[in-house]
Amino acid sequence: MRRIYVAGHRGMVGSGLVRQLMQAGGVEVITRTHAELDLTNQQAVADFFATESIDEVYLAAARVGGIFANNTYPADFIYDNLMIECNVIHQAYQAGVTKLLLLGSSCIYPKAVSQPMSEEALLTDVLEPTNEPYAIAKIAGIKLCESYNRQHGVDYRSVMPTNLYGENDNFHPENSHVIPAMMRRFHEAKLNNDSSVVVWGSGTPMREFLHVNDMAAASIYVMDLDTETYQSHTQAMLSHINVGTGVDCTIRELAESLKQVIGFEGELAFDASKPDGAPRKLMNVERLAQLGWRANISLLEGLEQTYAWFLEHQNDYRK
Prior knowledge:
The chain is built from eleven helices and 13 strands. It has helices at 12-24, 42-52, 67-72, 74-94, 132-152, 178-192, 212-224, 227-232, 251-262, 286-290, 299-313; strands spanning 2-7, 27-30, 56-59, 99-103, 155-161, 163-165, 196-200, 206-207, 209-211, 240-243, 249-250, 267-271, 280-281. The protein has a single domain (2-169, 208-246, 281-297), classed as NAD(P)-binding Rossmann-like Domain (Rossmann fold, 3-Layer(aba) Sandwich). The strands form four sheets. It has a six-stranded parallel β-sheet with strand order 2-1-3-4-5-10, sandwiched between helices.
């Protein structure tokens, strides 16, 4: 039975991976909380891999957040993510782990890149300033995987998801991504009978959103591809693969959809003094489609599922 370590199993994507791996069966899923294993601690990670006989690694652990968090804590974002990636990837190799999947982010691509963003656009121009430290850390993770493949002959792959959302997301009103932050804001406005909800930014940027269950399914699919098939649709074994829906919408359209799902009857007010971030972020997902996988959950369906989950767990977010 394969022993699969999911790093970051309490996070949104990590928990989705654990659910789907356990449902599929035939594997032993290994997890550690942050209290049990600090992934920024090199010796602790080395000791873990030396004793656990891990066969495969899903590296979903990361410090993540929205525009506000990235702007406020840039040193934390670059340091923590670099340390996590370096420690897990290197110690996995040291322990003889030959299969690893790194989960990255669409922010690795340049701010002014042509849309939709293809894998070949990496490192072709400057990054979006508001999340550059996080993006650089994720680019470093891709290059770590590529370099260990080249030098050591392992099979370390990378998938780059678009904006993710779903159950076990972070619903903090300021330090979270756009969907959970807006969902909580709309929900509380509904409870308070507020006349309006303020949405950060102009509402014009376009974003693509992928439900976490689709992301977990895609990750497992890519990990399980045989080497020949995987390499035939990438730039040898050095390439990363985009994961998304291939469909985007404006932030205003997203807000309207959230308003509908939550049942908020007030008005929308857009605060253009807040940063918009990149004007558009849409993934080119043809490479993954050619490999046989496409997203299954529509945005409206995903928002409804996420709001239902939030209602069941909202007491966890009262602070």
